Amino acid sequence: MKILVIEDEKALAGSITSQLDKEGYLCEAAFDYPSGLEKIMLYNYDCVVVDINLPGGDGFSLIENLKKTSSSTGIIIISARNSLDDKVRGLNTGSDDYLVKPFHFSELNARIKSLLRRRNFNGSNEIIFHEIKVDLNPRNVFVNNNEVNLYRKEFDLLMYFLSNKNNVLTKAAIAEHLWGDNIDSADSLDIVYSHIKNLRKKLLDKGSKDYIQSVYGIGYKFGEK
């Protein structure tokens, strides 16, 4: 899952992204309104954590722009402002949650997990697709109750497929979801094929049907043939 943190306090932003990275998320950060706006216009995120007081603009405006381009992205406001008016404005603008500073990382992490479960998997910690089962919290994958040992990117790839069942995903979209804007410096997208090949083999070795379909000239689709 891919998360953007927009926070002008660089120490706080660094602490949040570092902790979220340990939780298995792909995290990026922006420290002001212009760079935050640029990122949400260029890239897709599962969740955006945004402060409403930013150099060069405010978080409410960023949320409005984000809702115009990606209604499926989850939004959590973090702010030192604790007024009811700000909370109501944030929710009315399109945010899903509002967390007042200072907060413990464990609370932010729990709210992110809850938000992603609600948006992608109907609030469940367990995802079942035929013989494939995923336990989200320990990040375990099973096929016919046999555990499949996946590397982090392979797990993230499977989750991206399960979040977009029967949708055609381009190689560029997959690469951007797994590596963020770091993929812009890559010479090719062959790395996507390698990860898909490895994921497919590990699932098949445990007895799964082959749900990963190549769509010629475009990318891949996950679902029944």
From TrEMBL:
Pfam families: Response_reg, Trans_reg_C. Gene3D superfamilies: 3.40.50.2300, 6.10.250.690, Winged helix-like DNA-binding domain superfamily/Winged helix DNA-binding domain. Residues 2-116 form the Response regulatory domain. Residues 124-224 bind DNA. GO terms for biological process: regulation of DNA-templated transcription. GO terms for molecular function: phosphorelay response regulator activity; transcription cis-regulatory region binding. InterPro entries: CheY-like_superfamily (IPR011006), OmpR/PhoB-type_DNA-bd (IPR001867), Sig_transdc_resp-reg_C-effctor (IPR016032), Sig_transdc_resp-reg_receiver (IPR001789), WalR-like (IPR039420), WH-like_DNA-bd_sf (IPR036388). PROSITE patterns: OMPR_PHOB, RESPONSE_REGULATORY. One of its GO terms (cellular component) is protein-DNA complex. The keyword Transcription regulation applies. The keyword Transcription applies. The modification 4-aspartylphosphate is found at residue 51. Keywords: DNA-binding, Phosphoprotein, Transcription, Transcription regulation, Two-component regulatory system. Residues 124-224 form the OmpR/PhoB-type domain. PANTHER family: REGULATOR OF RPOS. This is Transcriptional regulator. It comes from Sporocytophaga myxococcoides.
